[in-house]
Amino acid sequence: MADSVEAQFAAETELLALRLLPGQASSLVAAYAALRAMVALVGADYPMEAEPAHVFLPIAGAERRP
Amino acid sequence: MTAADPCCLSVAEAAALIAAKRLSPVELTRAYLDRIERLNDTLHAYVRVLHDEALSAARGAEGEIIAGRYRGPLHGIPIGLKDIYDTAGVPTEGGSKLCLGRIPASDATTTALLKKAGAILLGKLTTWEFAIGGTAFDTPFPPARNPWNVERDPAGSSSGSGAAVAAGLCAAAMGSDTGGSIRWPAAWCGLAGLKPTYGRVSRAGIMPLSFSLDHAGPLTWTVEDAAILLQAIAGHDPRDPASSDRAVPDYRATAALPELKGIRLGIARSMFERDCVASDETRAAFDGSIEVLRGLGAGITEVELPPLAVYGAAAYLIARGEGFAIHEKTLRERPRDYGALARDRLMIGAYVRASDMMQAMRRRRMLAEATASAMIEVDAILLPTVPDAAPLLGELGPYFSNERPPYMRPFNLTGQPALSVCNGFDRAGLPLSLQIVGRCFDEAMVLRIGHGYERATPWRERRPQLQ
Fold first, then answer.
1. What is the pLDDT confidence band of residue B95, given thresholds at 50, 70 and 90?
2. Using CA atoms, how far apart are residues A32 and A6, in angstroms rounded to an integer?
3. pLDDT value of position B208
4. Is residue B210 flagged as an active site residue?
5. pTM (2 decimals)?
6. Which residue of B350, B358, B359 is in closest CB contact with A18?
7. Selecting from 3.90.1300.10, 3.30.365.10, 3.30.70.890, 1.10.1200.30, what CATH number does the domain B11-254+305-375+395-409 have?
């Protein structure tokens, strides 16, 4: 179980099959930590019916059969 | 630059002279090309100058005007386009090695509309790589410099657009704004920069960075000029699925309405006095602006918005998630062809999970509703555009926007129109800025307030001194 930010980052990088360039991990890990902090700030505790800002809109005319 | 220099004219001033046949579009274009020749090696505002094409177009415009076929206030006006706007037959390279030699077959919708209005394209302007790469020194194009002090950063990502308009290297320019990239260079270069409502101006043919946050809009010397450009580019475009079919009002006429009596303005004080405390000079300039607007008859009150960091977090996750989707293939196949900043800023989007993205979009709706609620009693929100004046070129850290966030991202998230105007200068002579945010599709109100403010203040009389 990954328990540090660095370990989580390494595990996700592997899972995503991302091949980082030499030295890139050290710069990306700080951005990763900031990203997880933002995820926490956005939160996940929403009412079930809370719609996202964008929902699919059918394209006009698509409902008509030729 | 002196007042007698044609490159010092606003679009509105030049247009009046051209319409009266007292200014030749050819001579005006030549004056800009000469100035570009003199200054671009210092400022790096242009990545490509279309010398012969511009003169040819200017001759065509002049012929039409002499023949009585005047098209309107952009006819014969020389402009520049950020190099993510497609231009048929002219390279559009997005500031990236990945796109060197990329020649679009057709114009972006905005490019085509500006040409139709008679504007003369002087060239393509420097951009941060793919409008995200920051001030970088490892891409094929050197970063643009700030005309008010060439050691300073002009901001971005529409860096060349800001530098070119401020330096008088074009009469107006187009930029794009995903998290502030029109308003930020406008702020640091002392310009008017308008991010219209999401859907008001087509994004078709402009390199995307974030589908739901990208906006296209003008950077100009005056607010009136921004109204002129918006008039030419606003409207429905079937090529852009987010494009609105709402009617387009007469922006210039509305902006010119006298006084601001009856208009109610709300100060979003918590953003710049609590969430990210603006510099003393920024706050002093803001307070001065409020007194000017009050003097023009506007009613002033306070509004409370959700925390800046929450808007920023939702916008960041959405922008990075969407950005990675756009660039995933090339990031995986050609990572070395990106500059380091663009590569890192795009690649971090891989770590945005599907659920993170959807929660951010749910939060986005809530924030948009909260912002709209805060505006029930006011016609516009006021706050600075950025907390500080321009730093030295290269001084911004890679995560500057997270550490000391500008006040622009909330309105990419909500899609509201937002205008940055110059509201003074700091002790070092660098521009400061005021941001005016309206209700969705009420650009007319934003422009009216900005134009009223601009006419009541002396800031448009000062120009960068360049040798």
1. very high
2. 9
3. 98
4. no
5. 0.96
6. B350
7. 3.90.1300.10
